[in-house]
Design brief:
By secondary structure, the protein is mainly alpha-helical. Helix content is 60%, strand content 5%. The structure holds zinc ion. Zinc ion binds next to helix 5 and helix 9.
Length: 359
């Protein structure tokens, strides 16, 4: 539907362009005959037809243009710093059948498991994934692989660029609608209608695809459990993080590892009311994501797998992450007793500031 709507829109614009072109040709010929312009016919014709404040041609050109841009770049963490995690990402990407990320970012803050693509000008598109060391403390090694695979699907299967293009086409349609005189708008009704229906019926399609592909590669059981933990517990852990962070900022000493400190406090209490609240929220579909029961059911349609991590937690499986978390924590408290000698400014805080919409 989206595909058809987009192409009908383009075809209608091409028809309009032919129509407007014929009128322009007549007008320019008249201009030349009455000697109201010194410019050559051809120059005058294209000036009038393709001027940036005309509607049809710029919209048509824009509809075809490959103009995705996103400045939020950053080097991420190198292979030397995270050899095991890079190995996992490459292996999972190969199993998923998509390119590996160009950058891996880490965060100690909640809600930072996400993926995006960056591009400056018409340069190459770079794929980024970010992982929250806090949220991933909730899950096992195998469940974390499901979370990582989910983000790799977003980055590797061009979801961000597709989302951009979808929004662009809709904007162009509305803009052309707004600028055309009303009889000409009629030709937009069918393309715009089809496009809107297509977009609405494909809501959450990227999330479903990411869950399904992750489940196929890592196992439906691990993907479903990861989703449950992340959606039911991560909101509670986020509240605890805010408390630990605020306390450390006020106190004398800061923790050596911020996410670890938050997780330790979290695991000491039940937080049953907060968990109930998160459970109630999780059954409502969000703007980006389907509801938790729907996501779990979707994942469980893929076969279960034994997994590779046994009972180990994600953090235990990647000791390199502890060192990374220490470096990150120093960027939060460069002046605290624990971190006096850190070179905070050189750390990768900038890359982590890339807090885009969670995907
Ligand atoms: Zn997602």
């Amino acid at each position: 539907m989206r595909f058809l709507g987009r192409w009908l829109f383009r075809i209608y614009l091409m028809q309009l362009l032919t129509f407007v072109g014929a009128i322009t040709a007549v007008l320019v010929t008249l201009e030349k005959l009455t000697r109201r312009t010194e410019l050559p016919w051809k120059t005058r014709f294209f000036d009038r037809l393709l001027s940036p404040d005309s509607t049809v041609y710029p919209a048509l050109k824009q509809s075809f243009a490959d103009d995705f841009e996103q400045p939020t770049d950053g080097p991420g963490w190198s292979e030397d710093q995270l050899p095991r995690l890079w190995g996992t990402c490459r292996a999972l990407a190969a199993a998923l059948g998509c390119p590996p990320p160009d950058a891996i970012h880490l965060s100690v803050e909640p809600g930072d498991c996400m993926a995006w693509q960056s591009r400056v000008g018409d340069g190459p598109v770079r794929r980024h994934i970010a992982l929250s060391l806090l949220d991933l403390r909730l899950v096992s090694h195998d469940e974390a692989r499901a979370v990582i695979a989910h983000e790799l699907v977003h980055a590797g299967f061009d979801h961000v660029r597709q989302g951009y293009d979808e929004a662009k086409q809709a904007t162009l349609m509305r803009a052309v609608w707004g600028r055309l005189p009303w009889p000409l708008r009629l030709g937009l009704l069918v393309p715009m209608g089809l496009y809107t229906i297509g977009v609405e019926s494909a809501a959450h399609a990227h999330e479903r695809e990411a869950d399904r592909k992750a489940a196929a590669v890592v196992g439906g059981n691990h993907t479903a459990r990861a989703l449950e933990r992340m959606m039911l517990q991560a909101p509670v852990l986020a509240r605890v993080f805010a408390v630990v962070h605020a306390r450390a900022a006020l106190g004398e000493r800061a923790p050596q590892r911020l996410a670890e400190a938050a997780y330790q406090l979290y695991s000491r209490y039940e937080f049953s009311q907060l968990k109930e609240h998160a459970a109630a929220e999780s059954v409502v579909p969000g703007e980006q994501h389907p509801s938790l029961p729907e996501r779990v059911a979707g994942s469980e349609r893929e076969p279960s797998r034994a997994g590779i991590g046994g009972q180990r937690s994600f953090i235990e499986a990647y000791p390199e992450l502890l060192a990374a978390e220490e470096l990150l924590t120093r960027t939060y408290f460069p002046d605290k007793a624990h971190h006096q000698r850190s070179d905070a400014s050189q750390l990768r805080r900038k890359a982590l500031a890339a807090r885009l919409k969670r995907r």
